Amino acid sequence: MSVSFPNEAMLHTPRPAVPSQSRDAGDREIEVFDGFAPQHRADVTALYLDAFGPKLARFLGRGARIRDFVHDTLNANFAVVAIDTQTGRVVGVAGFRTEQGGLTERFGSRLHGHYGPFGGFWRGLILNLLQTQERSDKLLVDGIAVAERYRGSGIGTALLHALDAKAAALGKQGIRLDVIDENRRAQALYARHGYTVTDAHDIGLLRLIFGFRHATQMTRML
User: Fold this and answer.
1) DSSP 6-19
2) What pLDDT score was predicted for residue 216?
3) Contact status, residue 151 vs residue 25, Cβ threshold 8 Å
4) Which residue of 10, 41, 97, 185 has the smallest Cβ count within 10 Å?
5) pLDDT at 184 over 50
């Protein structure tokens, strides 16, 4: 697997901006890039919905409604993506959040446009309850997703390495993420990459909307 990080100006014609890391991923060549181009927005949307759509369905709806909303709101400047160079498709994405914004930070501001004044209002209230406060010393992970057929091939690990590089480039001291307790596979991946449990919380009555009760906060210091 070849891992490279183009600068933002080179998204349409990617080139490495830092030394790359090679790793086999079956017969596929995978490259990891900083941000995603307009032609990859549909792929990133599909990956995000495959990972998080079931939890968001009662909140943002199903089918075209949630797809159009997520497609319109994801911020390409706050993600690293894994691209299969043979197909040109995005097969993995890791969003992040800083004080300047995040992959999903536009969700709140775009609710009214997609769901109307009342629908946007009550959805905004729920969204505010879920928001995790950014800390200036840590990069906050804003969702990680890998295409099903590519899972287990090292793409998740490559995305975590890319987040390490992004956090270091931004002068952060560490990286923080939240993972639901039911997702043991993700917790194991993060633990192998050096993340440790630093907190846990119960989302209370919001479990009736999102379908899970507990989330664990994990942190990796750089």
Assistant:
1) --GGGTTS---SS-
2) 85
3) no
4) 185
5) yes
Measured CA to CA, the distance from residue 207 to residue 49 in angstroms comes to: 19
Residues 6 or more apart in contact with residue 101 via CB below 8 angstroms: 75, 77, 78
8 A C-beta contact, residue 201 and residue 217: yes
Signed CA dihedral, 179, 153, 43, 88: sign only: positive
Q: Partners of 3 in the beta sheet? A: 21
Each residue of 70-99: pLDDT tens digit?
999 999 999 999 999 999 999 999 999 998
197's tokens: 């449990």
Torsion of CA 180, 183, 184, 190, to 10 degrees: -70
Hey, what are 53's tokens?
């759509």
The owner of tokens 């975590």 is 160
Helix axis angle, 107-130 to 41-60, nearest 10°: 50
Q: Which residues of 158-168 are buried (b: 16+ CB within 10 A; e: fewer)?
A: bbbbbbbbbbe
